[in-house]
Amino acid sequence: MCRVPRFAALLVLAAALAGCTGSTSTLSPTPTASVSSASPTPTLSEGQKAADDVVVKYRALIDELRSQDMPDISRLAALARDDAYVKWGRVIQNDFQNGYHQVGVTTISITSTDPGTSARQWLVAGCLDMSKADLIDKNGKSGLATSAGKQQANYAVDQDPQSLAWYVTKDDTGASC
Hints:
Helix content: 25-40%
Shape: globular
Oligomer: single chain
């Protein structure tokens, strides 16, 4: 009957002896950090993140297709539909037919992602930097009269109700940013 108290006493004794051993390490206080900001950082919903991601992938694919000698425009269907697909399909096809291809890449910096006209749409705005890209002909001469620079870009991104995949459906550029 006295086994449990003896065992407990042995555990207490073992713990006390362990604390008495000469340790060469010193305990350092656990650091604590407090972060505060004047304005909270907004978190994006899954839909907003998906819309932003598809715009970035879409722009990268356009760069890739425009840089190829024989672009496969059907690849654009993985990320674009409707007006955006038609617009870039024509541009890429015209570039190819006229002997132009892109060198360098563009970058998109997303500035806002707002709800669209339905629960399955996001309106993504950003600044498209085209300063490190050029459209050149067969002889290596620039096909651009002036450097494109940075332009405001606006995209409508819609979710397909069947596959739940997101697609860029509208793509407009405007004033410089």
